[in-house]
Write a structure and sequence with these properties.
Muramoyl-pentapeptide Carboxypeptidase, domain 2; binds zinc ion; 133 residues; alpha+beta; 5 strands; 5 helices; five-stranded mixed β-sheet
Amino acid sequence: MITENFSWEEMQESRIARERGISNTPGTAERAAMERLVRELLQPLRDIYGQPIRITSGYRSAELNRLVGGVPDSQHTKGEAADCTIAGDIKDLYYILMESELLFDQVIVYRKRNFMHLSLRTEKENRYRVMFQ
Ligand SMILES: [Zn+2]
């Protein structure tokens, strides 16, 4: 486990990678970024929300990222981003994040598909960019 509610497995699990036999193993720098993302953003958000947050896509190797149509240089390939979903409306989690004082880099809310992309920068900088799709 990385924290109480988030495991290394779910942060790097990819059904597509498994099915296609693509390697999806993060390196040292990526693991450090993943750990920071979980410790400083996902777990604190989960603690405020009080209910499960499921990671649908965390770390992506460059090959996996290309395959799933991720933007080149995606923060997923650096271990800095995760897509997550909840049993309820993802907008509720978005509101909780906005009301919190948690720092993030970029948030993209995918309303129709009910998930949210969250990232944390490795530098001490906050772009605080929010997008709705
Ligand atoms: Zn994403």
